[in-house]
Amino acid sequence: MSGSAQGLIDRFGRRHNYLRISLTDRCNLRCTYCMPANGIDWTPQEQLLTTPEILRLAQLFVSLEIDKIRLTGGEPLMNRDIKIIVEHLARLPGLRTLALTTNALKLGGMAQELRQNGLSSVTISLDSLKEDVFAAMTRRRRLADVMRGIEAAIAAGFDPVKINIVVMNNVNDGEILDFVEWGKDKPVDLRFIEYMPFPDTQWKKAGLLPYAEMRSRIDARYPLEAAPGSASDVGKSYRVGGHRAMVSFISSMTESFCGSCNRLRLTADGNIKACLFHPAEKSLRDVMRAGGSDGDLKQVIFDALQGKPEAHAQMDELLAIGNRTMIAIGG
């Protein structure tokens, strides 16, 4: 493959139009499913992409028919230039969606300005409605700050506000119905996510609650009606009778969506990663800092894309393949 006229198409015919950019590996929470108990060694600042480098790469990807960018981390709102980055990216011709995934601790004072600067969608991580469970899962007592961030996002006009809920068996699975009731009158999309294995997070298969079980529990109380979506959607979406909220399920482990994957990832230290669960990465940062042209960068992107596997490894094999931790990859 060569040349942007063909777009970003891998060897299995999947067209890629969605880029997730990690703005930092720093975070102000310590979620058990994302970060090792002992933390990680933060990437030295000089090894992280600078704001001009982020903007250059984003513009290059958009020229290759990327039309959706999601800013992630770590916690992306910890990047001091977040407002500038949003403002510049929102102006890129051809970019249709600029989204953000955040834990919302800092969102309360920023949501309105980010919206005004061109942010079009926000996803907020909220794994429990109970203070003690939230504290156990995030290792911080900051539930009230997250709730303020959600309220600020709704007030700023984001609709829907997507709520990511990582469901862990015997930890927060008893709150599934509580979340549905909590969202009844809110403009939210409740996204229940299967617990995924990453290195050094003490992942156990017993902690996984399959999507089918989550759906069954909700459907028994609140009848679900399938909502239309596109082939590349990662969430299986449903409407709930009498509720404003939507309910979605992300079944990465039990019913993967590899066959329609349209995503690429750019890590905070400048590596392109074609598959979340595959360890292969190629550095775009090093090419830029060595004086590489846009053509050189495109070739690295194309090479990385052609190395993307048809599907990720089986669930029981994922911890043995030498991948990075979730926080180091970017959400």
Total domains: 1
Share in helix: 25-40%
* Rg calculated over all Cα atoms: 19 Å
Name of the top-level CATH class: Alpha Beta
* Secondary structure tally: strands: 14
How many alpha or pi helices?
A: 10
Secondary-structure element order, N to C: EEEHEHEHEHHEHEHEEEEEEHHH
Oligomeric state: single chain
What is the first-to-last residue Cα distance?
A: 28 Å
| CATH homologous superfamily designation | Aldolase class I
Give the percentage of residues in beta strands.
15-25%
Low-confidence parts, pLDDT < 50 over ≥5 residues? Answer: 1-5
Q: What does the main sheet amount to? A: 12 strands, mixed
Q: What do the pLDDT scores average to?
A: 92
- Principal-axis shape equals globular
Descriptive key words:
alpha/beta, twelve-stranded mixed sheet, 14 strands, 27% helix, disordered N terminus
What's the helix and strand layout?
Layout: E1 8-9, E2 15-16, E3 18-22, H1 51-63, E4 68-72, H2 82-90, E5 97-102, H3 111-116, E6 121-125, H4 131-138, H5 143-155, E7 161-167, H6 176-182, E8 188-194, H7 211-221, E9 224-226, E10 235-240, E11 246-250, E12 263-266, E13 271-273, E14 282-283, H8 285-289, H9 294-306, H10 326-329
